[in-house]
Every structure is written in C-alpha cells, then in structure tokens.
C-alpha cells in the first residue's frame, strides 16, 4: 500500500501544512475520500479509516489542519487574520493537487466534529466538485453560541488571540460531561471507552486551543448553521452519523435538525444514523465495523449512480 506525504505552504503564509495520501496500488480506483479531523486532533488518528477505505479501492487523503498535528506552526492557532478562511483555502489547494494526480474520480468529503463544520463550509462553496458528504459528530445552532462568542471576544481583546485557552477548554469539557455520572476524566464525553478518552490526553500530537481559534470556530459554527448556508447543501448527498449521547450535537438533536432541513429542501440522497448511548467519537466506539460498512455502502451507491 502506498503512503504519500508532503507539505505545502500554508495559504496564510504561516508555515507549512502536512498532507498525506494512501492508496492500494493494485486496486482499480473508485473515488477520492478527503478526511478532515476534529478540534485538537490530527489526521494520524484516522489511520484505521485510511487503511480500510484504501482496501476498498479509494484514494484516501487528508491534512493536519493549521495549528494541529504536524501543521502546528503555532499550536492551536489558525492565523492572525481570517484563520478559518485560510483553512478552507488549504483544503481547496490540497484537493486541486490530488485531482491532478487522480483525474475523473468522484470526490467524497468526510469531516468529524470541527472537521464536519469545515466540510459543510467547503461544500457550500465548492459543492459542484463533490459527490457526497459524510459528517460525523456535527452540530446545529445553540442559544449559548452568542453569549459564549461574546465572552471569547472580550477575553481575546484582554489577553490576545494567541493566549492559551486552557481555562475555557476545561469549562467546555465540564459542560460536555454534565450528563455523565461520575466522569472518570475531563475527556469522558469523547467516548464510552475510557482508553479512547485517555488516549487523547496522552497523544503527543494533540494541541491546546487558543482564544483566536475559539473565536474563529464559533463564528464558523454560527455561519454554517444559517439557513442560507444549509440551503447551499441541498443538492449534495449527505450521510450524517452521531452518538445519541454526544453533547456536541446536543444528544442527536443537531444532526437530526440538519437532516430535517436538508430533507425539506429536497436533498436527493440523505442518510441519518444516531447510535443510542454512544458519545462524540462514534467511529471509536464498538460500532466502528458497522459504520465503516455503512460509509462504504453510501459512497458505493453514489458511485454507481455516476456510471
């Protein structure tokens, strides 16, 4: 199996962005799957997904988002100006390169959590280039969003955009743990498997978040949940999956509301799977084999429609 790595100058000039691509060279290629990881994560956490999908005949690729993993030019920081926008540009530039290497293949975009917000934002702009969206642990709007944005804006002004937001991250983790009886750690909300939650804290490539990144993320979350932005996804087939005990998606309400809006808009191909009692990283739960099969079936059906 070929594993290709490269770095490209970040679109905002802040260092370089790490990219990786896997393919099973002996197989005829079915399509391209581009993977976007979550907040404070990195693409290396999805090795199982790269290996599995490559063995199904897909070219699987992704990148460490600016401020993360091997692209942590400034850990947990997107950039001085328009940080989120620069990430969208980084994704686009990476996909343009991959399309040159593998022309005429349908492109599927997978995003988890923050990566799902990036995927939705990217699809709203470049949807004509995509065959389908696969969204894990996505979220809808929240009445808490505006007051939290206001708090972060004040702290950012007082402390600076690059200041470590550890205190805010702890408060967020406690909030996400609020319905877990006697959580064993601040990361308990991530997965019902304690070893998965603990692995996040021990990961040498994990990063903290800055106030600037929180501000960028919250603004993006507000935008992608506007009706006008969701309407831009009405023609893009979409598979949404989440844990029923995932606090990011308000325990299934977020992905379900997005699904309902897309269905009302006449989206041609929609699938929603909420896994009861499972938490945020549903692909790291016991249902992983089932979910990988569902993801493959979703893409295969769309690929067959193309032919």
UniProtKB/TrEMBL annotation:
Segments spanning the bilayer are: none
InterPro entries attached to this UniProt entry? AB_hydrolase_fold, Hydrolase_4, MAG_DAG_Lipase
Q: Where is the secretion signal located?
A: none
Q: Which organism is it from?
A: Oribacterium sinus F0268
- GO MF annotations in UniProt: hydrolase activity
Q: According to its UniProt record, what is one Pfam family this protein matches? A: Hydrolase_4
Please identify the protein, giving its name as recorded: Hydrolase, alpha/beta domain protein
Q: Which SUPFAM superfamilies match?
A: alpha/beta-Hydrolases
Domain Serine aminopeptidase S33: start-end pairs: 28-286
Q: Any keyword Ribosomal protein? A: no
Does the entry feature the keyword Thylakoid, yes or no? no
Query: Which UniProt keyword terms apply here?
Result: Hydrolase
């Amino acid at each position: 199996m070929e594993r290709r790595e490269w770095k490209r100058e970040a679109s905002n000039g802040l260092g370089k962005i790490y990219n990786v691509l896997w393919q099973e060279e002996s197989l005829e290629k079915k399509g391209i799957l581009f993977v976007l990881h979550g907040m404070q994560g990195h693409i290396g956490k999805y090795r199982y997904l790269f290996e599995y999908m490559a063995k199904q005949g897909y070219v699987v690729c992704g990148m460490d988002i600016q401020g993360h993993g091997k692209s942590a030019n400034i850990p947990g920081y997107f950039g001085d100006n328009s940080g989120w926008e620069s990430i969208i540009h980084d994704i686009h530039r990476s996909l343009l390169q991959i399309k040159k290497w593998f022309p005429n293949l349908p492109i599927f975009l997978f995003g988890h959590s923050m990566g799902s917000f990036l995927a939705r934002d990217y699809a709203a702009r470049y949807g004509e280039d995509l065959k389908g969206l696969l969204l894990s642990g996505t979220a809808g709007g929240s009445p808490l969003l505006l007051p939290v944005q206001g708090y972060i804006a004040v702290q950012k002004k007082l402390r600076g955009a690059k200041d470590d937001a550890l205190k805010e991250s702890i408060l967020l983790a406690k909030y996400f743990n609020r319905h877990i009886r006697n959580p064993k750690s601040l990361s308990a909300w991530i997965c019902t498997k304690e070893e998965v939650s603990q692995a996040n804290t021990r990961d040498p490539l994990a990063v903290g978040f800055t106030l600037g990144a929180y501000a960028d993320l919250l603004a993006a979350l507000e935008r992608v949940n506007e009706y006008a932005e969701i309407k831009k996804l009405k023609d893009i087939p979409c598979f949404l999956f989440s844990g029923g005990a995932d606090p990011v998606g308000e325990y299934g309400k977020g992905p379900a509301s997005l699904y309902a809006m897309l269905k009302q808009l006449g989206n041609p191909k929609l699938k929603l799977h909420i896994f009861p009692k499972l938490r945020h990283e549903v692909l790291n739960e016991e249902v992983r084999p089932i979910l990988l099969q569902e993801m493959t079936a979703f893409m295969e059906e769309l690929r067959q429609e193309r032919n």
